[in-house]
Amino acid sequence: MDLAFRQNRILITNDKDFGELVFRLKLPHKGIMLFRLSDDTYLSKLLKFKQVMKRFKTKLSNSFIVITDKKIRIRKFEHVN
């Protein structure tokens, strides 16, 4: 997470623990994209990723994005370092 922050990159993960790092511990980030799909295959994730990039590309920086089968939630952080 620190490396992604220093390199100004959005981190893509399946690990729900990143929510705790961001919301409870308030660790700095440039964006987290959390996949919570029932179909955990590479192709399924790739299709959702393309969908997210097409619709929300300008909203991803400094945001915590949760991608599920049915919806995409984006929480923007204005105070990110």
Q: Which features would summarize this protein structure in a list?
A:
alpha/beta, 81 residues
Strands, helices and their partners?
Layout: H1 2-6, E1 11-13, H2 17-24, E2 32-36, H3 42-56, E3 63-68, E4 72-76
Parallel strand pairs: 1-2, 2-3
Antiparallel strand pairs: 3-4
Structural description of this entry:
A 4-stranded mixed sheet has the order 1-2-3-4, sandwiched between helices. It starts with a helix and ends in a 5-residue tail after the last strand. The mean pLDDT is 93. It is α/β, with parallel strands linked by helices and 81 residues long. It has one domain (2-76). It has helices at residues 2-6, 17-24, 42-56; strands spanning 11-13, 32-36, 63-68, 72-76.
Backbone CA Rg: 12 Å
Give the biggest beta sheet. 4 strands, mixed
Order of helices and strands: HEHEHEE
Strand percentage: 15-25%
Mean pLDDT: 93
How many β-strands, per DSSP? Answer: 4
Uncertain stretches: none
Please work out how many helical segments DSSP would assign. Answer: 3
| Shape estimate | globular
Organism: Candidatus Gottesmanbacteria bacterium RBG_16_38_7b
Protein name: DUF5615 domain-containing protein
